[in-house]
Amino acid sequence: MAENPMLKFVSTPRDMPEKREATIRREDFHEIYAEYADQKAKEQASRCSQCGVPYCQTHCPLHNNIPDWLKLTAEGRLKEAYEVSQETNAFPEICGRICPQDRLCEGNCVIEQSGHGTVTIGSVEKYITDTAWENGWVQPIVPHAERTESVGIIGAGPGGLAAADRLRRAGVQVTIYDRYDRAGGLLTYAFPASSWKRTL
Ligand code: SF4
Questions:
Q1: Mutational test site, ligand 1, from 9, 104, 110, 114, max ligand atoms within 8 Å of CB
Q2: Rounded to an integer, what distance in angstroms lies between the CA atom of residue 105 and that of residue 54?
Q3: Of 107, 134, 161, the domain-final residue
Q4: Residue 195, pLDDT above cutoff 60
Q5: Which atom of ligand 1 is found nearest the CA of 110?
Q6: How many domains does the chain have?
Q7: What distance in angstroms lies between residue 47's CA and the mean position of ligand 1's atoms?
Q8: Is 182 helix (H, G, I), strand (E, B) or coil?
Q9: Do 103 and 188 fall into the same domain?
Q10: H or E element at residue 133
Q11: Domain encompassing residue 92
């Protein structure tokens, strides 16, 4: 029988991606944490205990299907992991970076509560989505059927873009208006561009 790839929290400690030194960080606007290497992401995802009642998911405002995409990552099925993670979240690469995970999914992770150290959910989410961008897996939305109804959205910030994402999935014709020349709102105009791997 094949070995269960999960439940490795007993033997594998929590490990975050490498944190860049403050003396180096003050010279640029790049991210504080480096990216997981492939094997490290897999290893950290495999710490998940696949809870029957996943408190990570119930405490996620988007109810992201975290246990499933952790398992798919641990199995090396990254494209499927990305597909599951983007199903409930228009911006997994952004939430993986800036969500207050310590108060949401990671803070309520069952193995965190039992003293083993949370599964590093945010870092794995970021890793999955960055991998998806690098491999061209992120594609424009193609709804099952187009509808004739149209909606205008005022504001191309995260709220407007997330609404557009949901409406397009439902086949609605969407036009987004914004006073600035680039979409993204705070994501574009409040964060230094060099801290992102891509621009919106
Ligand atoms: S609460 Fe933690 S251990 Fe349980 S399913 Fe979620 S990430 Fe895995």
A1: 110
A2: 9
A3: 134
A4: no
A5: 1
A6: 2
A7: 9
A8: coil
A9: no
A10: helix 121-134
A11: 8-134
